[in-house]
Design brief:
heterodimer; A: 413 residues; alpha+beta; Cytochrome Bc1 Complex, Chain D, domain 2; 3 domains; 15 helices; 7% strand; elongated; B: 404 residues; mainly alpha; 17 helices; globular
Chain lengths: 413, 404
């Protein structure tokens, strides 16, 4: 064993002595020395002439960095990726994020500071230090106050240090030796023992998890959560052994039509065919138009505007819908409009699943009314141009009046 | 010289003359302007005297709280400054004078608090068991009287200790501190709720008392820091006060600046999130129009700037920056009280068809000047014939040997 001198150590029994010793050692010009005490001793920093720690700047930088990253992440999730209006709040509702961001800053700052300390200063995965397993470490971690001067200090001189320690009144002056190969040992991550150890840990973890989740939870008295024993009953989510497809319920025969329901047979791009085949079965009477208006304001107006003029309220979050009063759309017959609502347009999503057939035809009727009243609507629309993004009810009330063709009325506004 | 000799060789020093001189100047100017304000616009002057009352209660009650805290927790580092804290409690004698305009307004049926005229208002009628004129005056008076009893008892104990250095006075004060802290907790919440929250009697916030307490303690620690650092720089206190003591004062200011923000934000966020009309209507006038800028600047004045001023370790031990932060926090507390009271006043004015006049801001400035004058004069006059350091306190030696 190649033993090398690490340091000279001295043990004191009083906290005041260790402060005096630290003052003496630091003022004698030693640089590589350290103090080990069982608990933090007040006044040690100035005695050792330690500079104020810069750790705080480091931690706050990490914390603020991750907090801003998370701010962007929340912004991205809540507005760009999957914007949702929750509780009538703006999409980016910053006050609610403040506690979260604060805690993110604390968590990342603290955890990363410790991790970097372990990796950078403790040279992980190396985990040895010369004072480990020495008498000195045992005493200073229970009831003694120790000081050590390392042998690589430029002023290191054994006799001088011994006499200084004796002069300071130390009872125990010792030397610490260390094994160089042990301290500077580089751990090999591909060492077979390490690999086997990893496998053993993985095995134990998996076995424990499997046992807990699949065995223990089904044993009395841990089986509160489990399904009760019901004999030979098929679980709804199980595969059925008796069916060819493995399903307990079978798919209907291809081409089956539900009673009283005609399927819509036109594909997305069969607009012209739909236009020829479909006839509007509903007359534009007042109840039908009332329904159409209500559904239009619910489903269409967000992109096409309250009056169908393409004034989207989404402020660029989704491309605005086109002006429905353009000649192109006036030229479409009812069937084509119905088809577009059902199957969607270029970027317009299909509304087959959320609007019933009757309502779709009612919307078509309502769009016709809008198209025939452009002038009235347009004038009114310029009046209310600066309205806030959610439009306002007055506006739609008025367009209601216009809808009946009473074009003289809107000047009152 | 070791600490024991320093304490036994202590000789009393006077407060600097300049404090009394400036105090008198500020006092006279402030008093004249404030009295003038009552002739120009008595309603607004009443509101500004309310700020003055709440501010002086802050400093005085905060100082009492700090003394009680010191006794009950056995703190040693603040013992060398305890006399300054004791002088600050004398501001409680002056504070009731500032409450007189408000109380007169209530008793003579003024429009400052609408619960004085509940009319047909169901909510105000339901609250009238608590919010009525007689009970209001009784509450205020009894809180102040109880606090005065504790103040006189605890401070006379501390004074007597200077001569005979007996430990029994410390023990007595420790016993008195515990009930005082309970009185303080109730008293300061009740004063905050009565005088400020009931300006808007339909509104309620359960955290309001804590909010006011956070500002109170920040401001009184700032006054304590300002006087301690100034006197110590002139060598008027005692040898042995180090940067570690400064650091503790600075740390307290920093901690309570953050605590104030925590409480203020909690109050805001819960109301904002719940979005209930009976709660949000207090914030709406504060967030709209010009008051919106006032609210935003409150965030900077009361939190971001002092936080930046005090976050660094060096700034907590550097006397210059510590004094700057104290001045700032004192002014910030004044501004905080202004923000609590004035938007309500402005709203009430606009309900009666009048506009809030920005040109009469000199009324609030005059109250601020008067308060500065009062603080300086009271400190100066209460320091007469009293040791500036509690030399008889058995904890003083450990207090001077304090290390972080």
């Amino acid at each position: 064993m190649n033993k090398k001198l690490y340091a000279l150590t001295a043990i004191f029994s009083e906290p005041n002595d260790i402060i005096r010793a630290a003052e003496k050692v630091s003022s004698s010009g030693y640089k590589n020395f350290d103090v080990n005490t069982p608990y933090p001793v007040h006044g040690m920093d100035p005695a050792m002439k330690l500079k104020p720690s810069k750790l705080g700047y480091f931690t706050i930088t990490i914390g603020l960095f991750f907090a801003s990253l998370f701010t962007y992440f929340i912004y991205w999730v809540q507005t760009l990726d999957y914007g949702q209006v929750i509780g009538g709040k703006p999409m980016f509702a910053w006050p609610t994020y403040v506690p979260i961001l604060f805690e993110v800053a604390i968590l990342t700052g603290a955890v990363l500071t410790v991790k970097i300390m372990i990796g950078f200063f403790f040279k992980f995965p190396n985990n040895s230090h010369p004072i480990h397993d020495s008498e000195y470490a045992k005493i200073t971690s229970s009831d003694g106050f120790g000081i050590l001067i390392e042998s690589d200090d430029p002023k290191f001189d054994e006799d001088e240090i011994n006499s200084m320690f004796a002069e300071l009144g130390s009872k125990k002056i010792n030397k610490i030796y260390f094994d160089e190969s042990e301290i500077n040992h580089k751990n090999n991550p591909f060492d077979y023992r390490f690999i086997i150890g990893l496998f053993i840990i993985a095995g134990i973890t998996s076995a424990t998890v499997y046992f807990n989740m699949n065995v223990l939870m089904y044993m009395t008295p841990f089986n509160w959560m489990a399904e009760q024993e019901r004999g030979d009953v098929f679980e709804s989510s199980d595969y059925a052994s008796f069916s060819k497809l493995g399903m307990t319920m079978r798919e209907p025969v291809e081409g089956t039509v539900a009673r009283g329901f005609m399927p819509y047979t036109f594909g997305k791009f069969e607009k012209e065919e739909a236009g020829k085949a479909l006839v509007n079965p509903y007359a534009a009477d007042s109840t039908n138009l009332e329904l159409g208006k209500r559904k239009f304001l619910t489903y269409c107006s967000s992109c096409h505007g309250d009056n169908g003029l393409g004034k989207s309220r989404l402020k660029g979050l989704y491309p605005p819908g086109p002006d429905l009063t353009m000649d192109l759309y006036k030229g479409y017959n009812d069937g084509i409009l119905y088809h577009i609502i059902t199957k969607g347009g270029a970027i317009m999503p299909a509304h087959e699943s959320q609007i019933t057939r009757k309502e779709r035809w009612a919307i078509v009727n309502y769009i016709r009314i809008i198209q025939n009243n452009i002038t009235a609507v347009e004038e009114e629309d310029t009046d209310t141009e600066d309205d806030d993004m959610w439009g306002d009810d007055e506006d739609s009330e008025d367009s209601d009046d216009d809808m009946w063709g009473d074009e003289g009325d809107e000047e009152d506004e | 010289m070791n600490t024991k000799e320093i304490i036994s060789n202590y000789t009393r020093k006077e407060f600097p003359e300049s404090i009394g001189k400036y105090g008198n100047i500020f006092l006279i100017i402030g008093a004249l302007l404030s009295i003038l304000a009552f002739f120009v616009d008595s309603e607004r002057a009443t509101y500004s005297s309310l700020i003055g009352f709440m501010f002086l209660i802050s400093i005085g009650m905060g100082a009492m709280f700090f003394i009680a805290l010191e006794y009950i927790t056995g703190v040693v580092w603040s013992v060398p400054f305890r006399r300054i804290t004791e002088f600050m409690t004398n501001l409680l004698w002056i504070a009731p004078i500032f409450a007189i305009p408000t109380l007169l307004n209530i008793l003579y049926g003024g429009h400052m608090y609408h619960w004085v005229h509940p009319g047909e208002d169901v909510i105000l009628l339901a609250k009238s068991a608590y919010l009525n004129e007689a009970w209001f005056v009784v509450r205020t008076a009894s809180i102040l009287i109880i606090v005065f009893i504790f103040k006189l008892y605890m401070i006379s104990n501390s004074r007597k200790q200077d001569t005979d250095k007996d430990q029994k006075y410390t023990k007595r004060n420790i016993i008195a501190s515990a009930p005082f802290l309970a009185v303080f907790a109730f008293g300061i919440s009740i004063i905050a709720i009565d005088f400020m929250m009931s300006l808007e009697p339909h509104w309620f916030s359960t955290i309001y008392g804590v909010y006011y307490f956070a500002g109170t303690f920040t401001a009184s620690i700032a006054v304590l820091t300002l006087f301690s650092v100034t006197l110590n720089e002139k060598g008027l206190l005692i040898d042995g006060i180090t940067t570690d003591h400064y650091y503790s004062l600075g740390g307290f200011m920093f901690a309570f600046t953050t605590f104030w923000m925590y409480i203020a934000f909690s109050q805001f966020m819960l109301i904002w999130y719940a979005n209930m009309p009976e709660e949000t209507f207090w914030f709406i006038p504060r967030l709209e129009g010009a008051w919106g800028f006032a609210t935003l600047s409150l965030l900077f004045i009361k939190f971001i700037i002092p936080f930046g001023l005090l976050i660094n370790r060096n700034s907590k031990i550097n006397p210059k920056r510590l004094k700057l932060a104290s001045y700032w926090l004192i002014a910030a507390h004044f501004y905080d009280l202004y923000w609590l009271i004035y938007p309500t006043y402005s709203k009430q004015l606009s309900e009666h068809g009048n506009n809030f006049s920005i040109f009469n801001f000199w009324m609030e400035i005059s109250i601020a000047v008067l308060i500065i004058g009062i603080i300086l004069t009271v400190m100066k006059s209460s320091a007469k014939n009293v040791n500036l350091v509690p030399v008889g306190d058995p904890k003083l030696e450990r207090g001077l040997n304090f290390h972080i």
